[in-house]
Amino acid sequence: MLSAQTGSKVYVVIVKKLREMIAAENLKPGDKLPSERELSERLKVGRSSVREAFRALELLGLIETRRGEGTFIRDFKGHQLVQVLSTFILQDEKAKKDIKETKFLIELDCLWLIMQKKTDDELLAFKNWAEQTTFTDDEFFYKIILLADNHLFLRMWEILKDYYNSLDFPAEELQKHDYLHLIEELQTKEEMRIRGAYKKLRKLVE
Amino acid sequence: MLSAQTGSKVYVVIVKKLREMIAAENLKPGDKLPSERELSERLKVGRSSVREAFRALELLGLIETRRGEGTFIRDFKGHQLVQVLSTFILQDEKAKKDIKETKFLIELDCLWLIMQKKTDDELLAFKNWAEQTTFTDDEFFYKIILLADNHLFLRMWEILKDYYNSLDFPAEELQKHDYLHLIEELQTKEEMRIRGAYKKLRKLVE
DNA sequence: TTAAGATCATTGGTCAGACCACTACGCTGT
DNA sequence: ACAGCGTAGTGGTCTGACCAATGATCTTAA
């Protein structure tokens, strides 16, 4: 039996197998996964166990199932994940704090990254865009993180953003003007002391 | 039928019901949920559907099941969540550069965090430990990130570390002494200009 | 010939029932 | 009073059955 090898629950093993399979065959979003019955047969497990694995991954928004068609890898989106989590997390203050902290630091990291990666002209273009456009903080940072050109940070941030917005933090958010000012400052200073500016930002929010 | 009301899949409806139940009865981590069979009966659904809902919530780390005992609400921790997400997200991402960059920035973030969170005594204790102990870079940062007390960063870093080590980057890693020096510097400076030191670190690796 | 309709295999969605393994709890006999 | 055992309850898994939706194939009529 599958569980006998590892002691893990079967559905967890199946999740792992799927991950390996996806990696091995280099499957991308939109690609089709084997049917439940086929997987059940190939892995020598019950179809119900396969379904448990699929349902878990589906709730995470990692796969998508279409009746009569099959199961497909999905281009990850927060989805219902956030609602579900927020309900369960609500009382965990530490988790909320971690989320806020992590989101904040990633944002600053990306801010720093674009300072490193982009040319002055590109930064200027962004600055002009930011000054002439109306946007929310989320939109602002989405742009930032896109420019930072780090896919991992982008994905992480999207998740964290959804978490963050589903929680009821006090309205202590920074305004876009503060960030713009930060950019200007960073842009003009020879030494990229973003953490100094960071500390300044901290003062604004605290 | 349950799904007829919303058109949603049964297991999603069950997840929703559970959320309502938890909210209504003010259940907290550690509390026991109804058994699979009881839920199956109360909600007029098959036990397998209840299990699909439970498995999904379990993969999210929101509940915990103990054979022979029951299903319990869990004190939420990132756990497998970040792990599973990261794996699926990384699969379509080939950029070794992103992995390296992200890992590096998270490490620096955590370094910065302990500067903020910990007392001088605690930092001194860590510094002494670091000077008197032999450790690898990974062990060093594991300690750092533990001290940073941010569970999300911890999980992310663990994944990134595994990926990083599985890739064949040139041996351009920083040595522990550099980091220790950094800590000393940070500790003594009034202004926490970690990014300045960060830049210095970048020079070391580039 | 072609387009509309019917048919059928495939696939996911759900349920019911059967075992197994493990745990807690109460009963029993000493 | 206590140690031991057995039973009920619970999760873990598998099997088989049926329903519902989809898509490809075949059939038929214009």
Number of helices of chain A: 11
- The helix/strand series of chain A, from N terminus to C terminus, equals HHEHHEEHHHHHHH
* Proportion of strand residues of chain A: under 5%
Cα-based radius of gyration of chain A, to the nearest Å: 22 Å
Strands of the largest sheet of chain A, in order across it? Answer: 1-3-2
Q: Write down the overall geometry of chain A.
A: elongated
Name of the CATH class of the largest domain in chain A:
Mainly Alpha
- What is the CATH architecture term of the largest domain in chain A? Up-down Bundle
> Number of DSSP strands of chain A?
3
Unreliable parts of chain A: 1-5, 187-206
Please, how many domains of chain A? 2
Derived structural class of chain A? mainly alpha
